[in-house]
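Researcher: I've got a protein sequence and the SMILES for zinc ion. Could you write out the 3D structure of the bound complex as structure tokens? I'd like something to compare against our soaking experiments later this week.
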Amino acid sequence: MREALREAEKAAETGEVPVGAVIVKDGEILSRAYNLVETYASSSAHAEMLAMDQAEARLGSKWLLGCTLYVTLEPCAMCAGAMVLSRMERLVIGTMDPKNGASGSVFDITACERLNHEIEVTRGVLQEECAEALSSFFRELRITKAQLRRKKRAEETSQTCEHHQQGENNQ
Ligand SMILES: [Zn+2]
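Model: Sure. Here is the predicted complex with zinc ion in place.
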């Protein structure tokens, strides 16, 4: 999970929502990735999807048998669905996502008896650090947005003043 957190940090540095994923097989890291939705302008460029693509390419297989995916945030429905399709053996989650999570929060795709594969799930690993990576990112984003708003307001005010002064000069 430390490695996945490191990936999440890279996402934050790129201005992406900090989510990181790492896939391990037989004690070896097969792939690592972080959220790149903004960079790729792609709603499906989630850390888990990118890590799965890389791991499948590396193994030369559509299945990730015997693999464990570590992810800092509970996967969404797309990623959890892709994990079931890939026959991922185990999923380790940092912090849960009550709004979008599909491994127990909104849905539980990873343990759905009606699907043909269930994944062994461990939740809450380095939970506080994974949650903090997200909340500090959004805190900074709010501060930046507020600063931009203040700057814009200041510019607008100075423009209005200039306009007003010009009007007075013309009289
Ligand atoms: Zn996802």
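Model: The CA atoms of residues 45 and 154 lie 37 Å apart. The first strand starts at residue 20 and ends at 25.
Researcher: Great, I'll pass this along to the crystallography team.
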